[in-house]
Amino acid sequence: MVNLDSFHARRAALIYNPVARALSRNPHSLQRTTDLLSQQGVKTTLVPTTGPGSATVQARRQIDEGCDLIIVAGGDGTINEAANGMLHTPVPLAILPGGTANVLAREMQIPTPIDHAAKRLSQWKPRRIAVGRLQRAGDAPRSFLCMAGAGLDADIVARLNLDLKAATGKFAYYVAGFSHVLSPLKEFEVLVDGRRFDGSFALISRVRNYGGDLEIARGASLLGDRFEVVLFRGTMSVRYLPYLLGVALGRAHQMHGCTVVRGSSVVCRPPDSSDIYVQVDGELAGTLPATADIIPNALTLLMPPEYLAREQSFAAVPACA
């Protein structure tokens, strides 16, 4: 088991997505990163991903071959894949932001570009965390570090133009979102620890920020063992424009039509045979019905000390009734 007080890696694998936006635009950053890690006493092997799902296999293989640290440079999707290959092992995961939204990196206040983050990696602290797990009938379970979403946001992911995303980054999400403004939405059933709700968008989150820019699940924490579930009602996409303003102002949880609840088990069921999409860490994961639950003590994650101090301080404040 990793000593959570004094951990130092000697042999690391840096799994990276060669088509990740930040890496493809700065091709020399990986070499600078390995040089910086070498200066900190960490011998690092570069391991490029080869396609969807490959990071899961690569992370597992590198651990079997003796690596005592897995570093992932890429977006939240690549991080998700690698983490799925590391569950219930003692080997820590460190992340370097190289994607479009970089939700997990922004949550932990990890700086960009990746070589700036790598300079500080030896100062980061390992912490054992819970992760979410999404299950759909007939599919293998899929774990997630950040969030799962059902309804509107997953529908936007389903409509995303991947070529536009590669060229423009987050702008592609705005295009997909605004093209949806006048579209009708279907509400679906959401059970949180057995309590029933309805909504056309359910965010099942382990982190506060959403898309790297906005805070929606304001009470979520990677150090906790529950989801913060944020539910929005409305059968027309245009209804979400005031919700968006409320999120930007930090007041969405006070708005009519928005419900925030915490729990460790979430079931989402469609009202009929309609295709209501679900996404995991920004990647399309299929359609409802789906169940999300918490896997406690599942993964060791390296965290900047500033983030740890903030989260521990946050946890010390009693929750409002």
Features:
321 residues, alpha+beta, Rossmann fold, Tumour Suppressor Smad4, six-stranded antiparallel beta sheet, 27% helix, 31% strand, globular
Q: In whole angstroms, how far apart are the ends?
A: 37 Å
What is the average of the pLDDT values?
89
The sequence of SSEs as H and E is EHHEHEHEHHEEEHHHEEEEEEHEEEEEH
**Largest sheet composition:** 6 strands, antiparallel
Gross geometry: globular
* Structural class by sheet pairing and helices: alpha+beta
**How many domains make up the coordinates?**
2
Note the beta-strand portion.
Answer: 25-35%
From the 3D structure, determine the CATH topology of the largest domain.
Tumour Suppressor Smad4
Please name the CATH architecture of the largest domain: Sandwich
**Number of strand elements:** 18
What's this model, at a glance?
Helices cover 27% and strands 31% of the residues.
What does this structure look like?
By secondary structure, the chain is α+β, with helices and mostly antiparallel strands. The protein has two domains: 11-123, Rossmann fold, CATH 3.40.50.10330; 133-296, Tumour Suppressor Smad4 (Sandwich), CATH 2.60.200. The chain has eleven helices and 18 strands. It has helices at 21-24, 29-39, 54-64, 76-84, 103-107, 114-118, 152-158, 162-168, 171-178, 240-248, 305-315, and strands at 11-16, 43-48, 69-74, 93-97, 125-135, 142-144, 147-151, 188-192, 195-199, 201-205, 209-210, 214-215, 227-232, 258-263, 265-269, 277-280, 283-287, 290-303. A six-stranded antiparallel β-sheet has the order 6-5-18-15-8-9. Strands 14-13-10-7-16-17 form a six-stranded antiparallel β-sheet, with helices on one face. A hairpin with a 2-residue loop joins strand 16 (277-280) and strand 17 (283-287). The longest helix has 11 residues, at 29-39. It is globular, with a radius of gyration of 19 Å. The model has no long low-confidence stretch (mean pLDDT 89).
